[in-house]
Amino acid sequence: MGYDSLHMGRSSIDLYSNDVGAPFVEITSFAAYVGGSPTNISVGGRRLGLKTALLTGLGEDPVGDFILHFLEQEGVETRWCLRKPGHRTSAVILGIEPPDKFPLVYYRDNCADIQLTIDDVLSAPVTESRVFQFAGTNLSKEPSRSATAFAAELAKRAGTKVILDIDFRPDQWHDPRAFGVAIRSVLPFVDVVIGTEDEINAAMLTDPAQMQLTHSQISDTKVSGDVDAAIRTILAMGPEALLHKVGAEGVRIHLADGRTLDAPGFPVEVYNILGAGDAFGAGFIYGYVQGWDWVKAARLGNACGAIVVTKHGCANFMPTLDEVMAFVESRGGL
Questions:
Q1: With contact defined as beta carbons under 8 Å apart, do 33 and 69 qualify?
Q2: CB-CB contact of 274 with 227 (8 Å)
């Protein structure tokens, strides 16, 4: 295999508030980092020692240069970080108000990474990677939607393991109810699903009462539902496992054979929750590629997430394998 993992989806410049604890309207300065869920996971995996590649779209602009420069320094394979003339590299602005308020604003109009095409997928090493990982936001618009579905189908056919981070971002959809339709369409090609309770419920949003909610109601409130029923439905559609992220408690692993396994978390004081899920994804994929059992791989993911929630940003603060193993060993091991 050419790569341990290929990651497909959004990339951005992330501007994190330097005024931690300040209301968004009182922020005076920001730190510039690299972001975007699959991009973050590609960096996290690389720092752990995996050979990772990224398939994303960048504008022909200085922000694209900024992202490319960082990825090249990290050792992520960037030959499929494709310039998209006429489109802009995206940006995200984030406030940090611990313990539970982290407002973020996306700037994704005319976004370069949504311009990924089926031809771009055909040029990438989908079938030469052990894992193909993508995010649900890829499916929000064309041509990225069909390109991503095609990539998942191609990977599945080739025996490449397919990992979906549900990644529910309501404001990125013309109608958040369409999110579930899109997610369900790709589940037959997915081996492992990763998501929070809200994301799992959003992927299975079929309750007629909830389907009548307005865009703003779904965007501004938690998506309720019978999460256990939603998990059973997802697993019946093809995946071998669903990793249900339950915050500080860690991860509950639901297997297609009906078993449920718990991978406890590592309690830490939260500084910034943004990026914790991507750090988890990187750690889990590392263990998955090594052939570890479900709990051990998820525990490593939990440890990576615990480290990143104590940091200011995400991709720039992903731990190395030595760092995460030292963290784990000081807390009783995996």
A1: no
A2: no
Mean pLDDT calculated for residue range 310-321: 94
Please name the helix (run of DSSP H) or strand (run of DSSP E) that holds residue 241, with its range, or none. Answer: strand 241-245
Q: Cα–Cα distance between 30 and 22 in angstroms, integer?
A: 12
Q: Identify the structural domains of the chain with CATH numbers, from first to last.
A: 3-9+37-86+113-329 (3.40.1190.20)
Burial classification of residue 116, based on how many CB atoms lie within 10 Å of its CB (0-12 exposed, 13-18 middle, 19 or more buried): buried
Query: pLDDT band at residue 289, thresholds of 50, 70 and 90?
Result: very high
Helix axes 321-329, 294-308, angle to 10 degrees: 100
Is residue 305 within 8 A of residue 279, CB to CB? The reply is: yes
- pLDDT tens-digit map of 168-199: 999 999 988 899 999 999 999 999 999 999 99
- Give the Å distances, CA to CA, from 181 to 38, 141, 168, 175: 21, 13, 12, 11
CA distance 29 to 11: 22
Asked if 167 contacts 37 with a C-beta cutoff of 8 angstroms, the reply is yes
Dihedral sign for Cα 29, 31, 37, 38, please: positive
CB-based contact 28:18 (threshold 8 Å)? yes
Whole-structure pTM over 0.90, yes or no?
A: yes
As a whole number of angstroms, the distance between CA 302 and CA 324 comes to 10
- Is 163 strand, coil or helix? strand
Q: What is the dihedral of CA 310, 312, 316, 321, to 10 degrees?
A: -10
Of residues 334 and 287, more confidence is placed in: 287
Paired tokens of 6: 């290929």
Least Cα distance to 321 among 14, 38, 79, 46 occurs for 46
The per-residue pLDDT for range 88-147, each reduced to its tens digit, is 999 999 999 988 889 999 999 999 999 999 999 999 999 999 999 999 999 999 999 999
